[in-house]
Amino acid sequence: MSIFNTGINPFKKANVVPVFLTITNDYAKYAAGAISSLMKHSNPKRYYRVIVMYDRLSIPNRWRLRNMVTRNCAIEFHKMKYNLYMQIIVRYCATKTGSADFFSSAVYYYRSFIARLFLQYEKAIYIDSDTILMDDIGKLFDIDLGDKVIAARVDPKVAMVPEFVRYVEKALDVPAKEYVNSGVLLMDLKKLRKLHYITKMTDLIKEYNADLVAPDQDYLNVILKGQIMHLDKSWNLQPEGEDPKGAKLLHFNLSKKPWYHEDVNCGELFWKAVKGTGFYGDLMREKERYTAKDEEEAALKIKALVEKADKLSKIKKPLL
Ligand SMILES: [Mn+2]
């Protein structure tokens, strides 16, 4: 237990809503928006525990995140260890670093370890760092999964791009209408443990060494095909191209990030969330420094991703 862990620790763990984020040093400032908005919309009668899984996180960043603790929201830090599974993933990521690859970093796979590492919880939430809460995340936690293993929203970005639809259906053999975004997950950890999820994923990595478009998300959809409950879009509303009315959680997914651009739908809500967190100044400077060249590079990456999806969708049999 690190001295950075702080906040309440209710005796009855069953009453706590555990929410996981996975970050690197660069992502700490964006995560501050997700965490502060989560705390602001929390139910004062409930307890929450934000668990930050990281590989490298500077002391000043840990200190600033730790200082966000409130009466009913604790913060905990968990450093990822290089166990056998992690070695397989890191090695796999190292071989997949083409220009088309946003997702080549091992940090994207940390969420797959939650069930295995946190045996004290039966159910948990995972959220991306590029999210903002607009309602109590406890309400998401309370959703009954029935016999499903996880709940997630069908990925709205897939339907927008024909290449992605073809990729998902042909290369992954998952119906596009069922393919979910892994940025917001409600997980039955008991079922994931029973399934040996992480072993299944690393077995697939070892067997096929496949070059995918959105690796961690693709594995999730392939391994849990037919076992995923579809969340209402309000729990993973992606403001670029969607009406934010009624949103309970906003996800600045793939698209324009409010910390780079001025004209981002709902961007002001991000800035409101990070105000007073200790990261506000850093974020303003980051926005100031963002150039047209950075913008060009980001657009090229998206283009390469679409091209990769197109190429992979032409294969004869599924990749995995
Ligand atoms: Mn995201």
Report on this model:
With 320 residues, the chain is of the alpha/beta class. It has helices spanning 28-40, 59-66, 84-95, 114-117, 137-141, 156-160, 162-171, 189-195, 197-208, 215-223, 267-274, 280-289, 292-312, and strands spanning 16-23, 47-54, 73-79, 123-127, 131-133, 150-152, 184-188, 228-230, 249-251. It contains 13 helices and nine strands. The strands form two sheets. Strands 3-2-1-4-7-6-8 form a seven-stranded mixed sheet. It has one domain: Spore Coat Polysaccharide Biosynthesis Protein SpsA, Chain A. Manganese (II) ion binds next to loops.
State the total count of DSSP E strands. 9
Quickly give the CATH architecture: Alpha-Beta Complex
Q: What's the shape? A: globular
Question: What is the H-and-E element order?
Answer: EHEHEHHEEHEHHEHHHEEHHH
CATH fold field value: Spore Coat Polysaccharide Biosynthesis Protein SpsA, Chain A
Q: Report the CATH C-level class.
A: Alpha Beta
In the residues, how many domains can be counted? 1
Q: In angstroms, what separates the terminal alpha carbons?
A: 39 Å
CATH superfamily: Spore Coat Polysaccharide Biosynthesis Protein SpsA, Chain A
- Given the helix and strand composition, which structural class is it? alpha/beta
Strand order of the largest sheet: 3-2-1-4-7-6-8
Percent helix, as a range, is 25-40%
